[in-house]
Amino acid sequence: MKPRIFITRKLTEEAVASLHEKYDVRMWDEESVAVPRAVLLKEVAEADALWSVLADSINREVFEAGTKLKIVANMAVGYNNIDLEAAKEYDVIVTNTPGVLTETTADLAFALLLATARKLISAENEIRKGNWTSWAPMRFTGMDVGGATLGIIGMGRIGEAVARRAKGFDMQVLYHNRNRKPDAEAEYGLEFRELDTLLKEADFVIILAPFTPKTAGMIGARELDLMKNTGVLINVARGGIVDEAALYDALKNGAIWAAGLDVFEKEPIPLDHPLLTLPNVTVLPHIGSASIKTRLAMMNLNAQAITDVLEGRKPKGIVQ
Ligand code: GLV
Ligand code: GLV
Questions:
Q1: Which domain holds residue 151?
Q2: Can you give the residue ranges of the D-isomer specific 2-hydroxyacid dehydrogenase NAD-binding domain (predicted)?
Q3: Which listed residue (286, 295, 311, 313) is catalytic?
Protein backbone atom coordinates (compact mmCIF):
# COMPACT_ATOMS: atom_id res chain seq x y z
CA MET A 1 0.00 0.00 0.00
CA LYS A 2 1.26 3.45 -0.90
CA PRO A 3 1.82 5.84 2.00
CA ARG A 4 -1.09 8.24 2.45
CA ILE A 5 -0.83 12.05 2.49
CA PHE A 6 -3.64 14.32 3.58
CA ILE A 7 -3.61 17.94 2.34
CA THR A 8 -5.92 20.33 4.18
CA ARG A 9 -6.66 22.69 1.26
CA LYS A 10 -7.36 22.23 -2.41
CA LEU A 11 -4.14 22.83 -4.35
CA THR A 12 -3.49 23.00 -8.08
CA GLU A 13 -2.68 19.64 -9.59
CA GLU A 14 0.75 20.81 -10.71
CA ALA A 15 1.69 21.48 -7.09
CA VAL A 16 1.08 17.89 -6.07
CA ALA A 17 1.92 16.08 -9.32
CA SER A 18 5.24 14.80 -7.97
CA LEU A 19 3.47 13.29 -4.95
CA HIS A 20 0.82 11.45 -6.95
CA GLU A 21 3.35 9.10 -8.51
CA LYS A 22 4.45 7.55 -5.25
CA TYR A 23 1.74 8.30 -2.76
CA ASP A 24 -1.94 8.04 -2.11
CA VAL A 25 -2.75 11.75 -2.00
CA ARG A 26 -5.99 12.88 -0.43
CA MET A 27 -6.94 16.52 -0.43
CA TRP A 28 -9.74 18.59 1.09
CA ASP A 29 -11.69 19.80 -1.93
CA GLU A 30 -12.10 23.49 -1.13
CA GLU A 31 -9.52 26.21 -1.51
CA SER A 32 -11.18 28.96 0.54
CA VAL A 33 -13.06 26.89 3.11
CA ALA A 34 -11.19 25.34 6.02
CA VAL A 35 -11.34 21.59 6.33
CA PRO A 36 -13.98 20.67 8.92
CA ARG A 37 -12.50 19.36 12.13
CA ALA A 38 -14.24 16.00 11.87
CA VAL A 39 -12.86 15.47 8.37
CA LEU A 40 -9.35 16.42 9.45
CA LEU A 41 -9.42 14.01 12.38
CA LYS A 42 -10.80 11.20 10.25
CA GLU A 43 -8.26 11.76 7.47
CA VAL A 44 -5.29 12.14 9.78
CA ALA A 45 -6.08 8.77 11.36
CA GLU A 46 -5.14 7.13 8.05
CA ALA A 47 -2.33 9.46 7.03
CA ASP A 48 1.43 8.99 7.06
CA ALA A 49 1.95 12.67 6.28
CA LEU A 50 -0.14 15.78 6.89
CA TRP A 51 0.16 18.93 4.75
CA SER A 52 -1.25 21.78 6.84
CA VAL A 53 -1.75 25.52 6.36
CA LEU A 54 -1.48 28.21 9.02
CA ALA A 55 -5.23 28.35 9.57
CA ASP A 56 -5.34 24.71 10.75
CA SER A 57 -5.00 24.11 14.46
CA ILE A 58 -2.73 21.08 14.64
CA ASN A 59 -3.15 20.45 18.32
CA ARG A 60 -2.76 17.42 20.58
CA GLU A 61 -6.04 15.97 19.39
CA VAL A 62 -4.66 15.76 15.85
CA PHE A 63 -1.47 14.01 16.97
CA GLU A 64 -3.52 11.59 19.08
CA ALA A 65 -5.66 10.73 16.09
CA GLY A 66 -2.71 10.45 13.70
CA THR A 67 -1.33 7.13 14.87
CA LYS A 68 0.61 6.59 11.61
CA LEU A 69 1.68 10.18 11.25
CA LYS A 70 5.39 10.82 10.60
CA ILE A 71 5.40 14.43 9.46
CA VAL A 72 3.36 17.59 9.58
CA ALA A 73 4.56 19.92 6.81
CA ASN A 74 3.18 23.39 7.53
CA MET A 75 2.92 25.57 4.45
CA ALA A 76 4.01 28.75 6.24
CA VAL A 77 7.02 30.20 7.96
CA GLY A 78 5.08 30.61 11.23
CA TYR A 79 4.16 27.44 13.10
CA ASN A 80 2.30 28.71 16.16
CA ASN A 81 -0.72 26.74 14.89
CA ILE A 82 1.08 23.51 15.77
CA ASP A 83 1.47 21.99 19.23
CA LEU A 84 5.19 21.20 19.12
CA GLU A 85 5.14 19.50 22.53
CA ALA A 86 2.55 17.04 21.34
CA ALA A 87 4.46 16.53 18.07
CA LYS A 88 7.53 15.62 20.05
CA GLU A 89 5.66 13.27 22.34
CA TYR A 90 4.15 11.46 19.38
CA ASP A 91 7.47 11.51 17.54
CA VAL A 92 6.21 13.47 14.53
CA ILE A 93 8.54 15.73 12.54
CA VAL A 94 7.27 19.28 11.94
CA THR A 95 8.58 21.37 9.05
CA ASN A 96 7.91 24.91 7.81
CA THR A 97 8.76 26.87 4.64
CA PRO A 98 11.24 29.62 5.52
CA GLY A 99 13.50 31.42 3.06
CA VAL A 100 11.27 31.37 0.00
CA LEU A 101 8.77 33.94 1.28
CA THR A 102 11.13 36.54 2.73
CA GLU A 103 11.13 39.08 -0.10
CA THR A 104 7.46 38.57 -0.94
CA THR A 105 6.39 39.21 2.64
CA ALA A 106 8.68 42.23 2.90
CA ASP A 107 7.05 43.61 -0.27
CA LEU A 108 3.63 43.21 1.30
CA ALA A 109 4.74 44.80 4.57
CA PHE A 110 6.02 47.79 2.67
CA ALA A 111 2.97 47.96 0.42
CA LEU A 112 0.69 47.94 3.46
CA LEU A 113 2.81 50.61 5.11
CA LEU A 114 2.51 52.83 2.03
CA ALA A 115 -1.19 52.08 1.56
CA THR A 116 -1.94 52.91 5.19
CA ALA A 117 0.22 56.04 5.29
CA ARG A 118 -1.31 57.41 2.09
CA LYS A 119 -4.86 56.07 2.58
CA LEU A 120 -4.76 54.31 -0.77
CA ILE A 121 -7.61 51.90 -0.22
CA SER A 122 -10.11 54.41 1.14
CA ALA A 123 -9.16 56.94 -1.55
CA GLU A 124 -9.71 54.31 -4.24
CA ASN A 125 -13.05 53.39 -2.72
CA GLU A 126 -14.17 57.02 -2.83
CA ILE A 127 -13.72 57.07 -6.61
CA ARG A 128 -15.83 53.94 -7.01
CA LYS A 129 -18.54 55.44 -4.79
CA GLY A 130 -18.67 58.52 -7.04
CA ASN A 131 -17.19 60.75 -4.35
CA TRP A 132 -14.31 62.19 -6.36
CA THR A 133 -15.98 65.50 -7.02
CA SER A 134 -12.93 67.72 -7.43
CA TRP A 135 -9.27 67.88 -6.51
CA ALA A 136 -9.31 68.80 -2.84
CA PRO A 137 -6.45 70.43 -0.96
CA MET A 138 -6.55 68.43 2.27
CA ARG A 139 -8.68 65.47 1.33
CA PHE A 140 -7.00 62.05 1.27
CA THR A 141 -3.90 63.50 2.86
CA GLY A 142 -1.66 61.13 4.79
CA MET A 143 1.78 60.71 6.27
CA ASP A 144 5.13 60.92 4.49
CA VAL A 145 7.06 57.68 4.34
CA GLY A 146 10.23 58.94 2.65
CA GLY A 147 12.69 60.18 5.25
CA ALA A 148 10.55 59.03 8.20
CA THR A 149 11.70 56.81 11.06
CA LEU A 150 10.77 53.13 10.88
CA GLY A 151 10.81 50.84 13.90
CA ILE A 152 10.93 47.12 13.18
CA ILE A 153 9.96 44.73 15.96
CA GLY A 154 11.50 41.33 15.19
CA MET A 155 14.69 41.36 13.16
CA GLY A 156 14.73 38.05 11.32
CA ARG A 157 15.03 37.45 7.59
CA ILE A 158 11.87 39.40 6.77
CA GLY A 159 12.88 42.24 9.09
CA GLU A 160 16.16 42.61 7.21
CA ALA A 161 14.35 42.56 3.86
CA VAL A 162 12.03 45.35 5.07
CA ALA A 163 15.01 47.33 6.37
CA ARG A 164 16.63 47.18 2.93
CA ARG A 165 13.47 48.56 1.33
CA ALA A 166 13.26 51.29 3.97
CA LYS A 167 16.80 52.39 3.17
CA GLY A 168 15.66 53.03 -0.40
CA PHE A 169 13.10 55.41 1.08
CA ASP A 170 15.80 57.24 3.06
CA MET A 171 14.28 56.07 6.31
CA GLN A 172 16.07 55.89 9.63
CA VAL A 173 15.62 52.27 10.69
CA LEU A 174 15.37 51.28 14.34
CA TYR A 175 14.80 47.72 15.45
CA HIS A 176 14.03 45.69 18.52
CA ASN A 177 14.79 42.00 18.77
CA ARG A 178 15.45 39.37 21.44
CA ASN A 179 19.11 39.58 20.58
CA ARG A 180 21.10 42.21 18.81
CA LYS A 181 22.15 41.68 15.22
CA PRO A 182 25.54 43.39 14.84
CA ASP A 183 25.98 42.18 11.26
CA ALA A 184 22.62 43.53 10.14
CA GLU A 185 23.32 46.77 12.04
CA ALA A 186 26.55 47.23 10.14
CA GLU A 187 25.20 46.13 6.79
CA TYR A 188 21.95 48.10 6.74
CA GLY A 189 22.70 50.88 9.21
CA LEU A 190 20.12 49.65 11.70
CA GLU A 191 19.95 51.04 15.21
CA PHE A 192 18.93 48.84 18.14
CA ARG A 193 16.41 50.25 20.62
CA GLU A 194 14.65 48.93 23.70
CA LEU A 195 11.00 48.36 22.86
CA ASP A 196 9.66 51.42 24.68
CA THR A 197 12.23 53.72 23.07
CA LEU A 198 11.49 52.34 19.63
CA LEU A 199 7.78 52.92 20.12
CA LYS A 200 8.42 56.52 21.18
CA GLU A 201 10.81 57.38 18.36
CA ALA A 202 9.31 55.64 15.33
CA ASP A 203 6.84 57.21 12.89
CA PHE A 204 6.02 53.75 11.57
CA VAL A 205 6.18 50.54 13.58
CA ILE A 206 6.17 47.21 11.75
CA ILE A 207 5.67 43.99 13.68
CA LEU A 208 7.60 41.05 12.26
CA ALA A 209 8.11 38.89 15.35
CA PRO A 210 6.97 35.28 15.61
CA PHE A 211 3.96 34.54 17.80
CA THR A 212 5.21 32.99 21.04
CA PRO A 213 4.14 33.13 24.69
CA LYS A 214 6.56 36.08 25.01
CA THR A 215 5.18 38.11 22.11
CA ALA A 216 1.49 37.35 22.75
CA GLY A 217 -0.18 40.65 23.64
CA MET A 218 3.21 42.40 23.47
CA ILE A 219 1.60 45.54 22.01
CA GLY A 220 -1.17 46.60 24.37
CA ALA A 221 -2.63 49.87 25.64
CA ARG A 222 0.59 50.96 27.37
CA GLU A 223 2.73 50.34 24.30
CA LEU A 224 0.28 52.03 21.91
CA ASP A 225 0.23 55.01 24.22
CA LEU A 226 4.00 55.33 23.91
CA MET A 227 3.70 55.72 20.14
CA LYS A 228 3.41 59.15 18.53
CA ASN A 229 -0.14 60.28 17.90
CA THR A 230 0.91 60.62 14.27
CA GLY A 231 2.28 57.06 14.43
CA VAL A 232 1.27 54.19 12.19
CA LEU A 233 1.28 50.55 13.29
CA ILE A 234 1.69 47.76 10.71
CA ASN A 235 1.19 44.12 11.67
CA VAL A 236 2.06 41.42 9.15
CA ALA A 237 3.20 38.81 11.69
CA ARG A 238 0.46 37.32 13.86
CA GLY A 239 -2.71 38.93 15.17
CA GLY A 240 -2.27 37.88 18.79
CA ILE A 241 0.86 40.00 19.17
CA VAL A 242 -1.34 43.13 19.27
CA ASP A 243 -4.20 43.48 21.75
CA GLU A 244 -7.02 44.34 19.32
CA ALA A 245 -9.30 45.92 21.92
CA ALA A 246 -6.47 48.25 22.95
CA LEU A 247 -5.69 48.96 19.31
CA TYR A 248 -9.31 49.88 18.64
CA ASP A 249 -9.24 52.36 21.54
CA ALA A 250 -5.90 53.83 20.45
CA LEU A 251 -7.15 54.38 16.89
CA LYS A 252 -10.50 55.70 18.03
CA ASN A 253 -9.14 58.20 20.55
CA GLY A 254 -6.22 59.34 18.41
CA ALA A 255 -3.42 57.84 20.49
CA ILE A 256 -2.06 56.63 17.14
CA TRP A 257 -2.91 57.82 13.63
CA ALA A 258 -3.57 54.63 11.70
CA ALA A 259 -2.98 50.89 11.50
CA GLY A 260 -2.42 48.46 8.63
CA LEU A 261 -3.23 44.86 9.46
CA ASP A 262 -2.67 41.70 7.47
CA VAL A 263 -3.25 39.45 10.49
CA PHE A 264 -5.86 39.23 13.25
CA GLU A 265 -6.51 37.52 16.57
CA LYS A 266 -9.25 35.56 14.85
CA GLU A 267 -9.03 34.88 11.12
CA PRO A 268 -11.02 35.57 9.07
CA ILE A 269 -11.78 38.73 11.07
CA PRO A 270 -15.52 38.71 11.87
CA LEU A 271 -17.41 41.29 9.80
CA ASP A 272 -18.86 42.87 12.92
CA HIS A 273 -15.42 43.41 14.44
CA PRO A 274 -15.11 46.96 15.88
CA LEU A 275 -11.82 47.56 14.02
CA LEU A 276 -13.69 47.35 10.73
CA THR A 277 -15.81 50.36 11.69
CA LEU A 278 -12.77 52.64 11.81
CA PRO A 279 -11.68 54.71 8.79
CA ASN A 280 -8.04 54.70 9.86
CA VAL A 281 -7.52 50.96 9.58
CA THR A 282 -6.36 49.24 6.39
CA VAL A 283 -7.05 45.53 6.42
CA LEU A 284 -5.85 42.62 4.28
CA PRO A 285 -6.73 38.91 4.43
CA HIS A 286 -3.33 37.49 5.58
CA ILE A 287 -1.63 37.72 2.17
CA GLY A 288 1.99 38.36 3.19
CA SER A 289 3.41 35.49 1.14
CA ALA A 290 0.78 35.62 -1.61
CA SER A 291 2.74 35.92 -4.84
CA ILE A 292 2.27 33.18 -7.42
CA LYS A 293 5.96 32.30 -7.47
CA THR A 294 6.29 32.21 -3.70
CA ARG A 295 3.19 30.16 -3.06
CA LEU A 296 4.40 27.60 -5.62
CA ALA A 297 7.84 27.59 -3.97
CA MET A 298 6.21 26.97 -0.57
CA MET A 299 4.27 24.08 -2.08
CA ASN A 300 7.46 22.65 -3.55
CA LEU A 301 9.17 22.79 -0.18
CA ASN A 302 6.24 21.06 1.48
CA ALA A 303 6.12 18.33 -1.15
CA GLN A 304 9.86 17.80 -0.83
CA ALA A 305 9.78 17.64 2.98
CA ILE A 306 7.03 15.03 2.89
CA THR A 307 8.85 12.98 0.24
CA ASP A 308 12.07 13.14 2.25
CA VAL A 309 10.44 11.91 5.43
CA LEU A 310 8.45 9.17 3.72
CA GLU A 311 11.65 7.98 2.03
CA GLY A 312 13.66 8.04 5.22
CA ARG A 313 15.69 11.19 4.58
CA LYS A 314 16.02 14.21 6.85
CA PRO A 315 13.89 17.04 5.41
CA LYS A 316 14.79 20.71 5.23
CA GLY A 317 12.99 23.19 7.45
CA ILE A 318 12.62 21.04 10.56
CA VAL A 319 11.23 23.16 13.38
CA GLN A 320 11.23 20.23 15.75
C1 GLV B 1 2.52 33.57 7.03
O2 GLV B 1 1.99 34.23 7.88
C3 GLV B 1 3.43 32.51 7.29
O4 GLV B 1 3.70 32.22 8.46
O5 GLV B 1 3.92 31.91 6.32
C1 GLV C 1 0.08 67.26 -8.29
O2 GLV C 1 -0.28 66.48 -9.15
C3 GLV C 1 0.77 68.50 -8.58
O4 GLV C 1 1.00 68.79 -9.74
O5 GLV C 1 1.10 69.18 -7.57
A1: 102-283
A2: 110-288
A3: 286
